[in-house]
Amino acid sequence: MGKAWKGVKEFIGVEEVAKLEFLVSLFAEALGTFLLVLIGCASCITWVEGQAPSVLHIAFTFGLAVAALAQFLGPISGCHVNPAVTIGLFVSGNCSLLKSLCYIVCQSCGAIAGAVVLKLITPNEQVSQGLGATDLGKGVEAGQGIVMEAIITFLLVLVVHAVTDPKRSDTKGWAPLAIGLAISVSHMAAIPFTGSSMNPARSLGPAVILTSWSNHWVYWVGPIVGAVIAGSLYKMGFRNTKEIEEASYDF
């Protein structure tokens, strides 16, 4: 009974979110997502008519931005900056329920704020071209978009779990680079299909500011499905089990 009650408390996370330092983590998540949307979506803007940014340009901007943020914010909040990553870590037992909910709210607010600032500093002519809003590629159906978003988010969440696994010594110091590369290669593959969101908050920011909701639900369903599958698989079979688990809850 005592072990079960302890598991329930860790699952909900009341004690964790009641600590004063948790506010710093929330601010870090909001700030990180703010910067990700501001910098990442800025790379999607077309400045010369007929010369849209290349896939490689956008892919490396997002990947390197997350790598840089992870290096700075990782020790503070874990640098999720992505509701799908938070959900994946919740499913695997590495993030409590209340912490996950608070993170997702802050990530969404940060993303919207990032899109607001980007709109304010961008000329109206460029704003009219989309501010990096995500939508399905020509001929891509919603179901196909969901599958693509699920696949690339699945890869991202698996990599996040692998490089943050406390029982793996071979990944120490490589987390930001590995995560950044996973995001970059996913963008290279998926931008023509869906714009490569793999982050519901990243799609939410521009959608709110531009009031453009075309296929927006795809960018929540796809990443969440991929994250849930990745978190479940890592917990059930991919995690390192050589040492006693300390970072997850078990009932």
Automatic annotation (TrEMBL):
<feature type="transmembrane region" description="Helical">
    <location>
        <begin position="142"/>
        <end position="163"/>
    </location>
</feature>
<keyword id="KW-0813">Transport</keyword>
<feature type="transmembrane region" description="Helical">
    <location>
        <begin position="20"/>
        <end position="48"/>
    </location>
</feature>
<comment type="similarity">
    <text>Belongs to the MIP/aquaporin (TC 1.A.8) family.</text>
</comment>
<comment type="subunit">
    <text>Homotetramer.</text>
</comment>
<dbReference type="InterPro" id="IPR000425">
    <property type="entry name" value="MIP"/>
</dbReference>
<feature type="transmembrane region" description="Helical">
    <location>
        <begin position="217"/>
        <end position="234"/>
    </location>
</feature>
<feature type="transmembrane region" description="Helical">
    <location>
        <begin position="175"/>
        <end position="197"/>
    </location>
</feature>
<keyword id="KW-0472">Membrane</keyword>
<keyword id="KW-0677">Repeat</keyword>
<keyword id="KW-1133">Transmembrane helix</keyword>
<dbReference type="InterPro" id="IPR022357">
    <property type="entry name" value="MIP_CS"/>
</dbReference>
<protein>
    <submittedName>
        <fullName>Aquaporin AQPAn.G isoform X3</fullName>
    </submittedName>
</protein>
<dbReference type="InterPro" id="IPR023271">
    <property type="entry name" value="Aquaporin-like"/>
</dbReference>
<dbReference type="Pfam" id="PF00230">
    <property type="entry name" value="MIP"/>
</dbReference>
<feature type="transmembrane region" description="Helical">
    <location>
        <begin position="54"/>
        <end position="73"/>
    </location>
</feature>
<keyword id="KW-0812">Transmembrane</keyword>
<dbReference type="InterPro" id="IPR034294">
    <property type="entry name" value="Aquaporin_transptr"/>
</dbReference>
